[in-house]
Design goal:
This is FAD-binding oxidoreductase. Belongs to the FAD-binding oxidoreductase/transferase type 4 family. Keywords: FAD, Flavoprotein, Oxidoreductase. InterPro entries: FAD-bd_oxidored_4_C, FAD-bd_PCMH, FAD-bd_PCMH-like_sf, FAD-bd_PCMH_sub1, FAD-bd_PCMH_sub2, FAD-linked_Oxase-like_C, FAD-oxidored/transferase_4, Oxid_FAD_bind_N. Its cofactor is FAD. By secondary structure, the protein is α+β, with helices and mostly antiparallel strands. The strands form 3 sheets. The chain has a 7-stranded antiparallel beta sheet, with helices on both faces. The protein has a 5-stranded antiparallel beta sheet with strand order 5-6-9-7-8. Helix 8 runs antiparallel to helix 10 and helix 13 runs antiparallel to helix 14. A hairpin with a 4-residue loop joins strand 15 and strand 16. It has 4 domains: 88 residues, Uridine Diphospho-n-acetylenolpyruvylglucosamine Reductase, domain 2 (2-Layer Sandwich), CATH 3.30.43.10; 116 residues, Uridine Diphospho-n-acetylenolpyruvylglucosamine Reductase, domain 3 (2-Layer Sandwich); 109 residues, Alpha-Beta Plaits (2-Layer Sandwich); 96 residues, Alpha-Beta Plaits. Helices cover 34% and strands 20% of the residues.
Length: 466
């Protein structure tokens, strides 16, 4: 059957790049999660919008599911192909199409990396401000499909704020041209925003027009040693009140342990249970003086016990590595990950309840947490105890995740802040969205993808469970 399907596809699209090589199927059939064994039908690399449209029409007619593939840096199983799906990779569609200096927009294909978008913007004296550690490998189509956030959300917002227009292929092969980079467009439903964060379940993004902005002033980076959890938000409030903050991140002593073993340099000789890293505008002497005043005030109040301010770009990069290198340092341990969010005002109370839960339920596990505390987003990484079978480890973590969902509901939070739902968080979607919400989402999905070919099983099942 598979051979017949692929022969029909090659007949329909004789110039389509296609592979059934085991190495390609394994590589392109998974993302950064490693729970599922990749088993895609094949990997397709379309080279044009028309080829994507024809490919989708063939899939709908043939009943073959499609899993869109970008940089596959996702952490929720959204790009996993484990049930004979055709993986559609956008690696061949990675060009900058146009720069508009008046509109200050950059139009790109979906397979371009975030780093390449940032570099292209800088060539024109502007920036694309969405940023995170996987910038060199993640692709802009995937960023849009998951509404990626990152380390500077506190200043610039999520990906959604920087998408001026999209071209999307629907499940019937139609090409939608959404918003056309208009600043004002009161012409009905803005389907562009429906596609952003849809995890490849509503359409395939084939072109994006991105907004650019002015570079920020020169900045500095500070790292603080924080002696108590209660002081974290005190430090945040002080920084936000007296500085123009671009990023405000935190990590625990366990995170520091792992990232320094991976090559990062310790910021202080003494230990602390918590650390904060913040980036702020420092283009003037007054701004630099304000940073010193923040440190002194936090020190006087006992909210920090030590601190360091970057004196060069190289030192700033080294300090950022303490935060950005954590995920990579944990990867060999194949951690179970929670990506959660609450309102900023709810962070202190939530942190207390969360810490109590983790200490009680994971007494013998290495729990590493860190995140974008300035926008209410925390990442919990649970490392498998040595000798514990994978299945037992996942089962135990899923038991605790259900309890964590109860804490999140209490504080009005979400089980997925920026990684998406995918396969990993699908069982917990109903803790964030009501039955009515999910029913409407199913209905929307059915309209845009009537044959159900786009990323089936991700986010939610196409039909309600019996």
């Amino acid at each position: 059957m598979n051979a017949s399907l692929l022969a029909a596809l090659k007949h329909r699209l004789p110039d389509l790049k296609l592979s059934t090589e085991p190495g390609d199927r394994e590589h392109f059939g998974r993302d950064w999660t490693r729970r599922w064994t990749p088993e895609p039908l094949a990997i397709a690399w379309p080279g044009s919008v028309e080829e994507v449209r024809a490919l989708v029409r063939w899939a709908a007619e043939s009943g073959v599911a499609i899993v869109p593939s970008g940089g596959r840096t996702g952490l929720s199983g959204g790009a996993v192909a484990a049930a004979g799906e055709l993986v559609v990779s956008f690696d061949r569609m990675k060009q900058v199409i146009a720069f508009n200096p008046v509109d200050r927009t950059l139009t790109v294909q979906p397979g371009i990396t975030l780093q390449a978008v940032q570099d292209a913007a800088r060539e024109h004296g502007l920036i694309y401000p969405v940023d995170f550690a996987a910038r060199g490998s993640c692709q802009i189509g995937g960023n849009i499909a998951t509404n990626a956030g990152g380390i500077r959300v506190i200043r610039y917002g999520n990906t959604r704020q920087w998408v001026a227009g999209l071209k999307v292929v629907t499940g019937t092969g139609e090409l939608l041209d959404l918003n056309r980079a208009l600043v004002k467009n009161a012409s009905g439903y803005d389907l562009r925003h429906l596609m952003i964060g849809s995890e490849g379940t509503l359409g395939l993004i084939v072109e994006a027009t991105l907004l650019l902005t002015d570079p920020p002033p020169d900045s500095n980076v500070m790292v603080f040693a924080v002696p108590a959890m209660d002081a974290l938000m005190q430090v945040f409030a002080t920084c936000r009140a007296q500085l123009t903050v671009s990023a405000f991140e935190f990590f625990t002593d366990r995170a520091l342990h792992h990232v320094t073993r991976h090559g990062a340099q310790r910021p202080f000789e003494s230990d602390s249970p918590f650390y904060v890293i913040t980036e702020f505008d420092a283009g003037s002497q007054a701004q630099q003086d304000a940073a010193l005043a923040v440190f002194e005030r936090c020190l006087e109040n006992g909210w920090v016990t030590d601190g360091v301010i970057s004196q060069s770009e190289a030192q700033a990069r080294a300090l950022w590595r303490l935060r950005e290198g954590i995920t990579e340092s944990l990867a060999p341990h194949r951690p179970y990950k929670n990506d959660i969010s609450v309102r900023i005002s709810a962070v202190p109370a939530f942190l207390h309840d969360m810490q109590e839960l983790l200490a009680r339920e994971y007494p013998h596990f290495d729990c590493v947490w860190f995140g974008h505390i300035g926008d209410g987003n925390l990442h919990i990484n649970v490392l498998r105890p040595e000798g514990m079978p994978d299945a037992q480890f996942i089962s135990e973590c899923e038991r605790v995740t259900k309890l964590l969902c109860e804490v999140l509901e209490k504080h009005g939070g979400s089980i997925s802040a920026e990684h998406g739902i995918g396969l990993v968080k699908k069982p917990y979607l109903d803790t964030v969205r009501s039955a009515a919400d999910i029913a409407l989402m199913r209905g929307i999905r059915g309209v845009l993808d009537p044959a159900g070919v786009f990323n089936p099983g991700k986010l939610f099942d196409s039909t309600p469970p019996a």
